[in-house]
Write a structure and sequence with these properties.
By secondary structure, the chain is of the alpha+beta class. The chain has 3 domains: about 140 residues, Trna Endonuclease, Chain: A, domain 1 (3-Layer(aba) Sandwich), CATH 3.40.1350.10; about 80 residues, Winged helix-like DNA-binding domain superfamily/Winged helix DNA-binding domain (Arc Repressor Mutant, subunit A, Orthogonal Bundle); about 130 residues, no CATH class. About 40% of the residues lie in helices and about 25% in strands. It is built from 13 helices and 16 strands. The longest helix is centred in the N-terminal third of the chain and has 19 residues. The protein is elongated. The relative contact order is 0.08.
């Protein structure tokens, strides 16, 4: 008990509190750090009564859990369960995982395998034969940050490239070169996708490659993340004689060419190019690389900052690398469809409706 880590005690205390909050329930920790069989062990054994049904929870404690983490762990816990079942204890033995956060994919595997779990968000699953409990809640904020880190910063840039090349096998060097991120970031991104079981894998070591196979789950998770985020800063301008957004896009191309500034049109105008839906568009959203080149491009357009009545919105970009160009169509550079989709999710008006149309036409295929 003296060596039992504080973080593990914290998780077990939270689990006990959740169990005791159930109607007609009782629970207590019977043993810590239990040796089971010749090579097995468990972090704890918890005796419980749920609705007067006696249970013994065989508990394994983890920090976070992703799909790839749980399969071998389940196998080991099942072996421990078998050893305990032969010990003469008449209670139903439930293999059980406790973690600070459990990803949606890992939860699904646990339910398929009828393995219990609890996390600090309050999710609780006890698949007893006569005492069944299922409370499904969002992952706790600290755990969510870990799960969502793949959609942020440099990893997000690498993830965009993986999605755009979802038919291709990619190694770490391939991904780093194509996306402009460091080899370390490319490796971390691919590893996280592998933990979620969203990629197929071939080879090993330096020649190891992955290919995206779960594009839809990735897109669903990214949609959920983007929908919950604060919209990026958009600086609004009025450009004279720019009432037609497509005509303004051509003027933007010329202005950025003269300033030697990288840019990419996104939002409604880009979505209309990829998947026509709206009858008319009066506002143009884009990204332009920051600094002096942005200033020169705006001067070339005679753009004036305004609070209302804008027709040009510049989404804040921190560096040239934040300006992702998908295709150049009819003389205009457009952001990739995935970036356009994510930008629309964070815009207002009919943008979300347009995002769903773009997704059905270009991304869910």
């Amino acid at each position: 008990m003296a060596e039992f880590e504080n973080s593990q005690r914290e998780l077990l205390d939270a689990l006990l509190e959740a169990l005791l909050a159930l109607p007609q329930s009782h629970a207590q920790i019977e043993r810590y750090e239990v040796e089971i069989g010749p090579r097995g062990r468990a972090d704890a054994l918890i005796g419980a009564y749920i609705g007067r049904q006696p249970l013994l929870l065989l508990v394994e404690i983890k920090a976070q859990l992703f799909p790839r983490d749980v399969r071998e762990a389940i196998w080991q816990l099942r072996n421990n369960q078998a050893h305990l079942s032969n010990s003469g204890d008449d209670r139903e033995i439930i293999p059980f995982f406790v973690a600070r956060a459990i990803s949606p994919g890992a939860r699904e595997i646990f339910r398929e395998e009828r393995v219990g779990y609890y996390d600090l968000g309050g999710s609780l699953y006890i698949p007893g034969k006569k005492a069944f409990i299922f409370l499904d809640k969002p992952a706790p904020k600290k755990g969510t940050k870990k799960f969502d880190s793949i959609f942020q910063g440099q990893k997000a840039r690498a993830l965009h490239e993986i999605y755009e090349r979802r038919q291709d096998w990619l190694g770490v060097k391939d991904l780093a070169d194509a996306s402009g991120v460091s080899p370390a970031t490319a490796s971390e991104t691919l590893t996280e996708l592998e933990r979620r079981e969203w990629v197929d894998v071939q080879g090993a070591g330096p020649s190891k490659q992955r290919r995206l196979r779960a594009a839809r789950p990735l897109l669903e998770a990214w949609t959920s993340y983007a929908s919950d985020q604060k919209a990026p800063t958009v600086r609004r301008y009025y450009v004279p004689k720019g009432s037609d957004a497509l005509a303004l896009a051509l003027r933007l191309d010329q202005a950025c060419d003269e300033a030697k500034a990288a840019y990419a049109v996104t939002g409604e105008v880009a979505a209309q190019i990829y998947a026509p839906y709206l009858s008319s568009i009066s506002q143009l959203r884009c990204r332009i690389e920051p600094g002096q080149k942005l200033i020169e491009a705006l001067l070339n357009l005679d753009a004036r900052p305004v609070a209302e009545g804008w027709n040009l919105g510049i989404i804040e970009a921190k560096s040239r690398r934040d300006v992702a160009v998908g295709q150049r169509i009819d003389g205009v550079c457009y952001a990739p469809p995935l970036q356009v989709y994510l930008d629309l999710l964070q815009a207002s008006g009919r943008s979300r409706e347009l995002a769903m149309h773009l997704r059905s036409e270009c991304l869910d295929k």
